[in-house]
């Protein structure tokens, strides 16, 4: 009996020491959430149609390249929608070959002959995969950027519907820079400038339309950029007629670093992945003498003339200062967003409000816990000390578990701690009432304790298991503070079973082993 008590006591002691080790120092092990520390709350809308257009342009270029390899020339391809494009200029026989090429190399596209051309349409399943993939990639990209910025324990999660992303950044002290970092979507594209030929741009859209007789070709679009003077100051706008085709995008980048240009101005140097370098080399090699527009978030940053074939590296100039060049290179390194984003909601929580929440939460927690302890002592007398000791250890294990996983404590998380205390008290009440029933039935103290714990265990396990399942669902489908509540509740429930059943019974057995108890104060 004594040996059994010894190893059980050592196990409890070990749990106390391990919990303290995981928890200490608490200010470094447990992070405070947005509602306690202050910070930023954002809701972003991902424009998944941008990703669909990029995929359509990429597959359209691939189809044309494969057709050229099979000696089909004179083709004209243009995108007619987010998920459709048409290839014209092929003979009836060549159209059949195009359809065969599409079935072989573009399995997610359907095709049909229409008005002397072949129309290709992306199937719905593939379109949904592209949309969902764009949101997933956007979450990862924003996460990489925020991690590079140094925000502790950010919450960046997609919503269940609507292609939206919730971003919570606790403790942010440079909110304007974070806004710029996220708003700078860095959707990077390289496009060939068709007019003007030198890539320098013209001062109005009308000049471009006049060059094409008032009607812009279907495979071109007009983008704008800034016109700068010798001091690199913006003095107006310039317009460019560029190809709609996106052969190389920011997804092909392997690295980007801030550097200096020929006259010492801040620029961003980039290198491309092998596949992107091959495509970039082919694009520039076929368009020597034309302008190459470097398009960032739909604006032309610069449009240098292609002097020779360029393979795996280049520069982005845009009148940056040093901080902007550093932030842009950070954004590009972390990955370009697959689609544009807009802000649906932006909310800032001040640190003063967070401090008030902490103080109110502590006062409520201390008051509530004190009342619980008092009720246990009044109703169960000396046995209430047993329940209080188990509750204290329960909270210690809970905090130690949060420190182990570096959990973020939020106001809902504090509510989870309070609920855990309530569940633990409920477990003790179940056990104590069963013991009382057994003692009223005339059984001895030891027999009453054994039967009380054994018969209450099923009820304790049932209540904790059902609540644990609810917490797991909250974690799976919740966001932000809801997940914080679920994490806290899950750890607390597991600790509650250990303390209410194992620790509480050990305390009773310890008392019984030291003296002959004829009557239990319960």
How confident overall, as mean pLDDT?
84
The number of E-state strands comes to 19
**What is the CA–CA distance across the termini?**
24 Å
Portion of residues within helices: 40-55%
How would you describe the shape? elongated
The assigned structural class equals alpha+beta
Low-pLDDT runs: none
Rg, Å, rounded: 33 Å
DSSP helix count?
15
In percent terms, what proportion of residues is strand?
A: 15-25%
Major beta sheet summary: 6 strands, antiparallel
Layout: helices, strands, pairs:
Blueprint: H1 2-23, H2 26-29, E1 31-32, H3 34-37, E2 39-46, H4 48-69, E3 76-81, E4 84-88, H5 92-105, E5 109-114, E6 117-122, H6 124-149, E7 155-158, E8 164-170, H7 175-183, E9 188-195, H8 205-211, E10 220-228, E11 234-243, E12 248-249, E13 253-260, E14 266-272, H9 274-285, E15 291-296, E16 299-302, E17 313-316, H10 322-334, E18 341-349, H11 351-380, H12 382-404, E19 408-409, H13 411-440, H14 445-477, H15 481-514
Parallel strand pairs: 1-19
Antiparallel strand pairs: 2-8, 2-18, 3-4, 4-6, 5-6, 7-8, 9-11, 9-12, 9-15, 10-11, 13-14, 14-17, 15-16
Helix pairs in contact: 1-12, 1-15, 4-5, 4-6, 11-12, 11-13, 12-13, 12-15, 13-14, 13-15, 14-15
Describe, in plain words, how this protein is organized in 3D.
With 522 residues, the protein is an alpha+beta fold. The chain is 54% helix and 22% strand. The protein contains 15 helices and 19 strands. A hairpin with a 2-residue loop joins strand 3 (76-81) and strand 4 (84-88). It is elongated and about 105 Å long. The two termini are 24 Å apart.
